[in-house]
Amino acid sequence: MNEDVFAWSLVLIMLLTNTLLSIYGIIYRRSLAKKLIGLTILSDTANLAFILIGFRFVQPAVPPVLTELSLENLEYLKQHAVDPLPQALVLTGIVISMAVNALIAFGIIQAYRITGSTDAKVVVKHFSEEVRGE
């Protein structure tokens, strides 16, 4: 049991570290590409947290498929089946984050083509001057 506590503590520390590093990258890095990398790490960390929520500590963990309708099979499935909802949410989250990342990457490429830089301050300054008509 002591090894399990150590392993889960290590996993939680890694999740927290990934979350903090990605938030740091999003807030404090000036390059838009590095901000996108931080956003990707944050979404992957959230997906990993959802997977861990659905994890079952009983062995053997079985997929939630009822092959034969009987009371003992239903009872066994209730005690040993893995929760499928977090897995479905993670698959949906992966698709959504991929689409959002592609859209943001397209915006970064277009900003680089126009301004010649991926620095957030340079891009904001260029577009704010363009909006004001300077």
From TrEMBL:
<dbReference type="InterPro" id="IPR039428">
    <property type="entry name" value="NUOK/Mnh_C1-like"/>
</dbReference>
<keyword id="KW-0812">Transmembrane</keyword>
<dbReference type="InterPro" id="IPR050601">
    <property type="entry name" value="CPA3_antiporter_subunitC"/>
</dbReference>
<keyword id="KW-1003">Cell membrane</keyword>
<protein>
    <submittedName>
        <fullName>NADH-ubiquinone oxidoreductase chain 4L</fullName>
    </submittedName>
</protein>
<dbReference type="GO" id="GO:0005886">
    <property type="term" value="C:plasma membrane"/>
</dbReference>
<keyword id="KW-0830">Ubiquinone</keyword>
<feature type="transmembrane region" description="Helical">
    <location>
        <begin position="6"/>
        <end position="27"/>
    </location>
</feature>
<feature type="transmembrane region" description="Helical">
    <location>
        <begin position="88"/>
        <end position="109"/>
    </location>
</feature>
<keyword id="KW-0472">Membrane</keyword>
<feature type="transmembrane region" description="Helical">
    <location>
        <begin position="36"/>
        <end position="58"/>
    </location>
</feature>
<dbReference type="Pfam" id="PF00420">
    <property type="entry name" value="Oxidored_q2"/>
</dbReference>
<keyword id="KW-1133">Transmembrane helix</keyword>
